[in-house]
Specification:
With about 240 residues, the chain is of the alpha/beta class. The chain has helices spanning about 5-20, 25-35, 35-40, 50-60, 80-90, 135-140, 155-165, 180-190, 210-220; strands spanning about 70-75, 95-100, 150-155, 170-175, 195-200, 230, 235-240. It has one domain: Rossmann fold. Bound molecules: S-adenosylmethionine (SAM).
């Protein structure tokens, strides 16, 4: 376990290393280390593998100079949210994370979620088990991160339009609902609110268990100027032009 001072020193080193354009891998390692005490304690609460955690934390730091807050669409138990929030604290960032989830699991899949054998592997209610708005909000207070995170409970179709009407800009959006409709709603709602230079990460692209994600991303980006890049494992991303 490293101390708060050591973690902050690592975060400063990280920022210096990025300014000097040193190895992105080393920088990502430092970003991960800077949040590692929480990574250890939160491991069961994020579904992201360590490579994805490192990639997301690196993107949190790389978008620090882009105007706007951070969005996480599909938070489950909030482990990824808290890791990002801890990182924001370590670098004294002014950004906050808005995390949206039904906290009731997934809605019904649609036709586009079917795999090659015609079956949608993620059914309605998946992820309901172990998901709780009250518990995750309480955890934010226990971890002293309540000033860094704002959780919104509801299905995307119901809550994203009013969130978008707030008119706030975003520097980083992580889209992680694992289904076609949720992915498309997220991209369509927030594309225009992403600051130029902001980053959109989508998880589970190309996974056999969530074919709808790739279909939504490919349809959405067709005819738009942004180029999709591979991030870590099944995480892909693009930079808003
Ligand atoms: C793969 S989990 C998210 C994992 C999380 N990002 C992490 O770091 O562990 C997917 C989450 O998306 C939520 N979800 C999926 N579709 C949704 C929708 N249309 N509206 C609201 N929440 C949704 C589910 O409830 C579930 O908690």
């Amino acid at each position: 376990m490293i101390s708060d001072e050591e973690r902050e020193a690592l975060a400063r080193l990280y920022l210096a290393s990025r300014r000097n354009a040193r190895s992105a891998y080393l920088a990502a390692q430092m970003a991960y280390l800077a949040a590692s005490p929480l990574a250890d304690s939160c491991e069961p609460r994020t579904m992201w593998e360590p490579a994805k955690v490192r990639f997301v934390l690196d993107m949190v730091l790389r978008t620090e100079s882009v105007p706007g807050n951070i969005l996480e669409l599909g938070v489950f138990q909030g482990g990824g949210t808290f890791l990002m929030a801890r990182m924001l604290k370590a670098i004294s960032s002014g950004r906050v994370i808005v995390g949206v989830d039904s906290f009731e699991g997934m809605p019904e899949p649609v036709d586009q979620d079917a795999d090659d054998s015609g079956v949608a592997r993620f059914h309605e209610g998946m992820f309901r088990e172990g998901s709780s708005y009250q518990y995750t909000s309480l955890l934010a207070r226990v971890l002293h991160l309540e000033d860094r995170v704002r959780f919104i409970k509801g299905y995307f179709a119901d809550v994203l339009p009013s969130l978008a009407r707030e008119g706030r800009r975003y520097s980083l959006a992580i889209v992680d609902p694992d289904q076609y409709a949720g992915t498309m709603q997220a991209l369509e709602t927030f594309y225009d609110l992403m600051s130029p230079g902001g980053v959109v990460i989508v998880d589970d692209y190309g996974c056999a268990s969530s074919m709808g994600v790739q279909r939504a991303v490919d349809e959405f980006l067709a005819g738009r100027p942004e180029r999709l890049e591979v991030g870590a494992l099944s995480m892909v991303w693009f930079r808003k032009l």
